[in-house]
Each structure stands twice: as structure tokens, then as C-alpha cells.
């Protein structure tokens, strides 16, 4: 893969992860940089990076609201992060597919 194709793929991953996790592009870049360290493969690190799930507040449990600043909900597994409390590349792809294709069925 040449440099331009790698950069294009990185941008695609970054945009999708920022959409899925509601993080800024700078937050994503910093998380990848921390994972890569010195030297290493940026594109592979972008696919391995895990960002906190903002839908469940990192709890992994489905949240419907907050009570006195504490997140509350009926329980159950968060559908955005699959109960992990953080989202990775696979979660971002699944969420984007669901948002794009399944919500039109409503």
C-alpha cells in the first residue's frame, strides 16, 4: 500500500471512529499516537485503538438518563459497545451500518 492509500484509509477509520464514539479527531489521533509509541504502524494502531463509549458512559450498561448526576437505566448490555464500555473499529463499523441501514426501517 502506498502512502496516499494508507493516509486515505487512516482518514476513513478516523472519521468513522469519531462518528461512532463522538470523540474529536484530535482525541482519536492522540489515542493512536499513544498506542503506536515510537515507530510502528499507524494504520494498524488506528484499527486497534479503543475509545470510551459515550453512549453508556463507559459502564457497558444501557443508560436511559441520569439521576442527581449518576447514570441510570433499566440495565442490560449497551448496544453501541456490546457491553465492553469502549468501542473499537469493529464496533464502529457495526454501529455505522446499523445507523445507515436499519434506522430507515422505522
Q: Keyphrases for this structure?
A:
two-stranded antiparallel sheet; 4 helices; mainly alpha
Fold and architecture overview:
The chain has one domain (about 5-105). With about 110 residues, it is mainly α. Helix content is about 50%, strand content about 10%. Helix 1 runs parallel beside helix 3 (about 40-50), helix 1 packs across helix 4 and helix 2 packs across helix 3 (about 40-50). The protein has helices at about 5-20, 25-35, 40-50, 90-100; strands at about 50, 65, 70, 85. It is globular. The model has no long low-confidence stretch (mean pLDDT about 85).
At a glance:
This protein is mainly alpha-helical and 106 residues long. It contains four helices and four strands; from the N terminus they run αααββββα. The strands form two sheets. A two-stranded antiparallel ribbon has the order 1-4.
Strand order of the largest sheet: 1-4
H/E element sequence: HHHEEEEH
Shape: globular
List low-pLDDT spans. Answer: none
What is the strand and helix layout of this fold?
Elements: H1 3-21, H2 25-36, H3 42-48, E1 51-52, E2 65-67, E3 70-72, E4 86-87, H4 89-102
Amino acid at each position: 500500500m502506498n502512502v496516499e492509500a494508507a493516509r486515505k484509509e487512516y482518514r476513513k477509520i478516523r472519521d468513522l471512529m469519531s462518528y461512532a464514539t463522538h470523540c474529536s479527531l484530535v482525541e482519536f489521533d492522540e489515542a493512536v499516537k499513544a498506542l503506536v509509541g515510537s515507530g510502528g504502524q499507524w494504520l494498524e494502531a488506528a484499527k486497534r485503538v479503543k475509545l470510551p463509549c459515550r453512549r453508556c458512559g463507559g459502564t457497558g450498561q444501557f443508560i436511559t438518563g441520569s439521576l442527581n448526576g449518576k447514570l441510570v437505566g433499566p440495565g442490560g448490555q449497551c448496544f453501541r459497545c456490546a457491553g465492553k464500555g469502549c468501542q473499537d473499529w469493529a464496533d464502529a463499523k457495526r454501529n455505522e451500518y446499523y445507523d445507515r441501514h436499519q434506522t430507515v426501517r422505522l
